[in-house]
Each structure stands twice: as structure tokens, then as C-alpha cells.
């Protein structure tokens, strides 16, 4: 991945704030929607989810997840050519006493300030999704794979 591609990936992830979240539900694929924030320093993605949600129970049972972030649909770009990033990662609970909790919470609330009240709800908690690998599609015939280490380096360095 070159610097231009890295910047395009970063720009897409910073501009969009909702992802499709894939979990394993009783051994079967399950997809839902989650708002996300970027964890500081390129350390992944922060989600704030309810324990009542199927995907939360799934992540507690099996941390392997996938996120799909897509660019906005326009009439000028065929759906198959939409820029997108698919993340394969591990979702871990981020408890209030965890060393990264304050930074994760701040990242989430910076992106979703109206979520402040939900941090007082007993059934909501933070999870951090640490990428294992990423697949970035910039359009037709523009795809590349990214390691977790390269993702962290590109995101921490600003691309």
C-alpha cells in the first residue's frame, strides 16, 4: 500500500461513522449495524453496544468479527466500484478500569457527543476491535491487503 492508498483508506474511515458488523451467531454469520470511532494511535475501532443486542452476546462468545465500511453511494459510481474497507479483527470488551478506556471513550464521544447519556446505561459497554487484517477496495481493479501493523502505522502517522 502506498501513501496515496493509505490516505484514501484513512479518509474513508474518518469520514464514515457507521459500519456493518459481522459476528458468529450460534456458528452462523450474523450482520448488524454499529456506529464506530477510530481508536487513538491506530489501535482499531471503538464501538459502544448494548448487552441486549445479539452482536454483543456474539462478541462475548467469540471475539472474531468483521467490519465493512463503505463510501456513500452516488449516481456517478456503480455500486461495485464503491470504495470500502473490510476489517477482520478481534472484539474485546473495554472495561472502565482498562488502561485504554478513557481514550476509547473520548474517541467515541468526540464522534458521537449525543451518546453521552448512554454511557450511564448499565447495559451499554465499550468494545475495541483490534484489526488482524484489512482489505481495501478503492474502486474497480484497485484492491490491496493491509496488515494490522501497517494499518496501525498508517493511522498513527496520519497516512
TrEMBL record:
Q: Which residues form the Pyridoxamine 5'-phosphate oxidase N-terminal domain?
A: 7-136
InterPro entries per record: HutZ, Pyridox_Oxase_N, Split_barrel_FMN-bd
Transmembrane domains' residue ranges? none
**Pfam families from the xrefs?**
PNPOx_N (PF01243)
Descriptive protein name: Pyridoxamine 5'-phosphate oxidase family protein
Q: Which organism is it from?
A: Ramlibacter alkalitolerans
